[in-house]
Amino acid sequence: MRTPLTLRILHSTPRAGWIALAVFAALTWIAVPVAHAVLPEAHPLHLSAYTVSLLGKILCYMVVAVAMDLIWGYAGILSLGHGLFFALGGYAFGMYLMRQIGRDGSYQSDLPDFMVFLDWKELPWYWAGSDSFLGTLLLVVAVPGLVAFVFGWFAFRSRIKGVYFSIITQALTYAAMLLFFRNETGFGGNNGFTDFKRILGYSITSPEMRATLFALSAALLMACLVLGRYLVTSRFGRVLAAIRDAESRVMFIGYNPLHYKLFMWTLSAVLCGLAGALYVPQVGIINPSEMSPANSIEIAVWVAVGGRGTLVGAVLGAGIVNLAKSWFTMSFPEYWPFFLGFLFIAVTLYLPDGVVGLWRRLRARTAPATPTVPAPQQSKPQAEARREMQPAAVPIESNRLPAAKGAEA
Amino acid sequence: MSTVTDVERAAMESEDQRENWSGNASTGHVVEPGALDLSHNVILYLEDITVSFDGFRALNRLSLAIDVGELRCIIGPNGAGKTTMMDVITGKTRPDSGRAFFGQTIDLTRLTEPQIAHAGIGRKFQKPTIFEQHTAFENLELAMKADKRVRRTLFAQLLDDDRDRIAEVLTQIRLDGEADRPAGLLSHGQKQWLEIGMLLMQEPKLLLLDEPVAGMTDDETERTAELFVSLAGKHSLVVVEHDMAFVEALGGKVTVLCEGSVLAEGDLAEVQEDARVIEVYLGR
Q1: Nearest CA in chain A to B125
Q2: Is ipTM strictly over 0.90?
Q3: Which domain range does residue B84 map to?
Q4: Which of A46, A353, A378, A392 is the most exposed place for a label (fewest CB within 10 A)?
């Protein structure tokens, strides 16, 4: 009996997961928008524009973390250049936002201000179509996807792995940053894009727009989680994890690892691009510093803190680190880099499975009767037994590789 | 599954292959593109294969033919080129010169590892390589003969037939009680068996087994020999092994490799009396 795909997607996320998603949806689609856009400012439950933008920004980071986890946690490929795909999505949408400014810029020209400043007379060819919203959505997906596909094709075909791959991704994002810093590149140089006014003609600073962008970010995150859960519990996900653990064996049983890695890699980049496109209108600026290597490394830190190979861990990690960051940068701005470095070392040494791993260990201690390794369950109905065999949290066993090993794996 | 032949065909349909087939058409019988042609009763044919690594000749004009359904043992001292030979057959290493054919028509030197696996050659490594984080059941599921392209695997699901097939192989390799155990927690001998089971799931025509009983207990070794003997006929097997008792139990023809080429070939008893073989094994 074949089960329809929708049902299988439904089953791939456990019941508790759906309940959590429903609560999350209620909060992000109803509670936060109402608290921000409907309640008057004097109301004690009113959420300020600052808070909503901050939370919306973190939601976008969470999407990036999930994308990173899919490629790092489940396929064992550590990218230190995911910030590039995020920035590319952001720039693609930023171009549209620049065009939406229209003649309201300082120079009251049809061209974006920075082009007038450079004395350009017309839009460069690659800005064609940037005034169309649908065309922009296409670019948001296609640009990071294409860059990732071409880069991945060459890297995976040459069987570049482990730290070598990580270093090349780092170089890639650094090179892109230098390119975008140049005024001649046509993306606003080191100032990037800012001073956005409208999306689809509606003011970008209105509470309604802010609430909508926030709700869309939440929707994207939920969609990523459901899609991610389906992927990692499907046979595709098992092949991917098998490539991570014993690539040559995968080849000799007839799978082509190149296609598997490339698919996951490109999908991961596209998700980052979408997150970037939602991020830019919420923070109101995009510039080449988003492509700096440090940003990409931070993405890896989020995932490591939350717990590699668990989608919910990636979400938690991005949330915890970014909330800590916004508190630190307000209270002790000069200490943030030290704290981040300390956090990464501490997690690598003491929490190889991140926050989720810690939670599991604590729970195992309170209920010592539960064995870490599932005993043979022949008597269980097959459907149920199968579900337990899914690498739900992939390989979080006690004999698990330490976090640092992900770089080599 | 008809889709599988499609994959195999797609895998083979390169321009080079087409030329080969048209060349063969003149010999008189109809050859289906991509299908294994066993009309001459030979499943594997190596001719004058030479492989050098930095000047060292791992294989030196090696020629070897394996018949359909045969169980062949390959023995030889360390560095004789046994593993390199397996690498050439499975596409991991390209020979500097020489020809390697699977059946009459499939040129192994032109295919990639996954294409060769689809064509029907399964390989067991010297060190058991299984997916340690996956359960025994999942290991077999992944190895199962199926359409292994991304777009199919994304939507693949286990049907009842598949479960039955996996259960059957689990019984055959005596792991039916361990289906849900992560493979990394199995004993060494069980891992060896699991890898053999993965080969069986692929339903290969030719099995290459590199030291399959290394690290097994005597009892396990004996049962492995029984399993292989029962497989011969339906499959063709090439076994590389040092354990002479095991080779004797298998009872097939023996090929002795030395310094990258064939030194002697025949029954174990014959080979053991060969003066050159004795010299190689006992030193000069």
Answers
A1: A249
A2: no
A3: 36-120+206-214+240-283
A4: A378
